[in-house]
Amino acid sequence: MSAPKIRLDSVSKSFGGSVVAVEKLSLDIRDGEFLAIVGPSGCGKTTVLNMLAGLEPATSGTMALNGKPIEGPGAERGVMFQDYALFPWRTVRGNVEFGLVYGPAENGLSPAERTERVERTIEMVGLKGSQDKYPHQLSGGMRQRVALARLMASEPEILLMDEPLAALDAQTRVILQDELLRIWGQDRPASERRTVVFITHAIDEAVFLADRVAVLSSHPGRLKQIVDIDLPRPRGDATRRSGDFARLCQSIWELIREEAYRATMN
Ligand SMILES: Nc1ncnc2c1ncn2[C@@H]1O[C@H](COP(=O)(O)OP(=O)(O)OP(=O)(O)O)[C@@H](O)[C@H]1O
Ligand SMILES: [Mg+2]
């Protein structure tokens, strides 16, 4: 088997010496893989993503990308944060364009191509007509779409996404799940796909999208199990209605049920 794209080896992260957010996490993420991470609130998902993004150092253990240590952010990794992190002083168009001007796709795009890409991406996430609005004029779901568009416009090789669809209504969510699989490359050969690390609370979303689902347990965040999702691709509505899909969702739910209940007690 080829070397992993990203390798986490016994990675731990504590805050202020007492809070252990992540403990001894070892995980290989393959090139072109769609990996979902699920687990109860507070189990360390965002912390893992921040470390992969190069925004937080690990307290111990090693993290490597293409065999080289992760020491900071890089243009090959696009990040979508849980709180959207939009620029309030930029319009929708300005926010989306930001990813292109400063992102990895900047090279080689003419101004006309850039404009075309920005408009197309805005349309794709259903924000046509809102291009000139500012974040404070948008609903939470719309802001999330802007953040998604900003990430997708730059088409990075590795997408690191923290609950990117959580604030959307059910219908939009389904549309964007399909769209995300298209952008990832589910219609292309495995060798031409991007690598995605996708954090979600929603088990059905993880199963629908991912090649593998990493289930974390909490306090401290540990890897409980990795579940292979062998549903055929391309996936779509038929997948969502299939018995295999329901069975996989159920088995992952059983893995985290106890913890999820415990988390609601805290
Ligand atoms: N900067 C920080 N300082 C101190 N503690 C932190 C910090 N960031 C995270 N933590 C703690 O680390 C643990 C994991 O937090 P994290 O945000 O990674 O969880 P999560 O799985 O993303 O949760 P959620 O599903 O609610 O987004 C929590 O106990 C949290 O309080
Ligand atoms: Mg989080």
Automatic annotation (TrEMBL):
- Which Pfam families does the protein's record reference? ABC_tran (PF00005)
Q: Which GO terms describe its molecular function?
A: ATP binding; ATP hydrolysis activity
Q: What CDD domains does the record tag this protein with?
A: ABC_NrtD_SsuB_transporters
Key words of the record: ATP-binding, Nucleotide-binding, Transport
Q: InterPro entries in the record, alphabetically?
A: AAA+_ATPase, ABC_transporter-like_ATP-bd, ABC_transporter-like_CS, ABC_transporter_ATP-bind, P-loop_NTPase
The answer to keyword GTP-binding applying to this record is no
Which residues belong to any copy of the ABC transporter domain? 6-243
Similarity field: Belongs to the ABC transporter superfamily.
**The protein's name:** Taurine transporter subunit ATP-binding component of ABC superfamily
This chain's source organism reads Mesorhizobium plurifarium
- Phylogenetic placement of the source organism: Bacteria, Pseudomonadati, Pseudomonadota, Alphaproteobacteria, Hyphomicrobiales
Gene field: tauB
